[in-house]
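User: Second chain of the day. Same drill as before.
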Amino acid sequence: MHTHARLVIVGAGIVGCSVAYHFARLGWRDVVVVDKGPLFENDGSTSHAPGGMFLTNSSKMMTEFAKYSRRLYGELELDGQELIFGVGGLEVAYTRERWHDLRRKQGWAKAYGLESHLISPSETRQLVPILDPGVIHGAFYTPADAVAKGVLLITALARAASADGAVTFLPETAVTDLEVTNGRVTAVLTERGRIAAEQVLLCTNIWGPLLAERMGVKIPLQAAQHLYTVTTPIPELAGAAREVEHPLMRHQDHAMYFRQHFDSYGVGSYRHEPLMVDARDVGRTAQRPFPPEHFARGWESAIELLPPLRGAGQTRQLNGMFAFTVDGFPVMGETSVRGLWVCIGLWLTHAGGAGRAIAEWMAEGLPPMDLREADITRFQKHQLARPYVAERCAQNYREVYDIIHPLQPIARPRNLRLSPVHQRLVEQGAFFFQSGGWEVAGWHEANAHLLELYEGRIPARDTWASRFWSPIQGAEHLHVRERVGLFNLSALAVLEVAGPGAAGFLNWLAANQVDRPVGKIVYTSLLNARGGIVADLTVVRRAPDRFWVITGGGVLPHDLAWIERHAPRDGSVMITDLSAAYGTIGLWGPRARAVLAALAEEDVSNAAFPYYTARPLTVDTAPVLALRVSYAGELGWELYTPTEYALRLWDALWEAGQPHGIIAAGSGAFDSLRLEKGYRLWGADIHTDYTPDEAGIGWAVRMDKGDFLGRAAVAAQRAAGIGRKLCCLTLDGPGVLLGKEPILAGGRPVGYVTSANYGYSVGRFIAYGYLPTEYAALGTKVEVEYFGEHLPATVSAEPLFDPKGARMKQ
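Assistant: Same format as last time:
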């Protein structure tokens, strides 16, 4: 029995074995993998997984995980056995809506470098001869999709990892607790004894929340029961020489999937109400008794699509559990307990890529790619609550194969976080979306009368693009440009960084110069050691030793974790989340000063209150910190007031704005306003895969201020030059885009759309995307593929609207 390890990995399923394999490849030694069951057909999900690998995903991160996993599994060897069957994958379209949506899916495949084809019913039947082509409209075919044998794969991974003694696997070694000293994990306690550990990685999947919760770490994940059967032999498949010859197949309109087992077929069904299991109730194994009543509808769907199944019985009935998280993405990263890491919420398809990513992250301090969607620091507090976890995990099971619109808000639970002015937005007929749990107005039906005023300037959208959109957004956009609008910005987050070391710490953490006079506002990125953009935010100096860091409410947990992780531990810096203490209102438009001047006791003229400065004001009876900044690209202010004054401030501004035509404007107008100005959105246009120079915000990096995090990487890139650039594209004709569509040059994918919206002021549809520098010159002609249609576009100068920023500075 080992008594010490550099790293203890808990869980010897596909993820734990993948991580161990990659640590061995990185040259690590003294790695121990423990599992409460036998090796390698154990109690976990891998042992019963059907092994289907569909690679295409709307998320680039998940697609990259899957692509790497496919390559890795194909390279492994185990005594000459077939570990993976490269038979390709089919997703059949039972409905016209699905057939239409598969064109969108093919766009993702092109954008992320996967070969794919849309094929006819007869071509689909050629690949799966037992399929009835009369019940489908066609299929999406991806040759790289495959069927993998989970137990053989983890055996091969473990054998390779332990070949030279780098990794030791300990079966029948249940972990009972973790030992933590001074906030750092120091040991793993097992039924067989204590193992001192420098680091611990939990790869326990459906049991993941249990050990973590003992350390005060909540992981929003639940197990879902899932039904799978294998039929008796089918005469039409008699004599099948290989276990899998037919492509893996999905029937998503009925929440079904299929794979061949020699002369039999495997049938998996999500076509039943979720049978969720809390981690505390999972028990020893990932299996439950099979409930035939929940499989009946799925079996009928299987017979309709594959008629030869009608006379077949079922030789094996499996009810195996696997993990669902609240947002459908895995949970990866270091917890609030130093040295304690997690990598859970993953299936076989993505385990190879995720295993590599977490190993490199732990070994080198940074992941090899942007992992914002998987980062454990992404969760809001309400997302960790048990009722929320239960609701969202169950809904993600229901929707696993549904057609989900990119703008579609969750249906439940709602009204979790309401701003102080929420009722005023309700009175304005707001259509609410959710952002970070906040109810955010997309547009307001009270502004429908403006459509007549702006008739002809707001193009109609096709049926798909018009979902969760309203032409009122365009009217609000134009009205803000011409008059004035009020925006509810209460979802913005405010972090106070204070103390004698605050200025030095923030100036080292930020790429821009933040050691500026009191009252100055600085826009800056926070970079990692590779120069990747970790955060995009605003810093305001409130006092010599006190700063406000303002960021988006949706990314608050992520940004706060990054700042806290890098803060000095000597007491010289104190970080406080003030977000709930303030309500924030945006006042923007050419008449904004007239509205504010009617209420403010202080002078708000341009001379007294210049652009990019902050001042305390008394507005009506509300104490306000006013920031003269504008994500909308118009004259105006962000107004921060203690929460209890926010409603009074809104009402006072509303009344004072009536002579000036004031409206309440929503997030739809906000997005199109910012896109006309070329303002970047973190998580879409910028994230850790991109550097400031690639993103076109290198002007906000101050190389002459001294050392800062990421400086060396920026300097090296500037010496070498960049190979890609974030470009502004405008469609040459009518059309609409929603994001993630492939950008083509000479018929070949060269990038994909990161942000898109119509520019109502400039009269053109706008898209942003990264292009190789040879395609980034102004005037370059490209195409953007939208549901299979190629829309001509041109690389255009940015910003498209008010390029000198004169309107904001007047």
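The chain has a mean pLDDT of 97.

User: Great, on to the next one.
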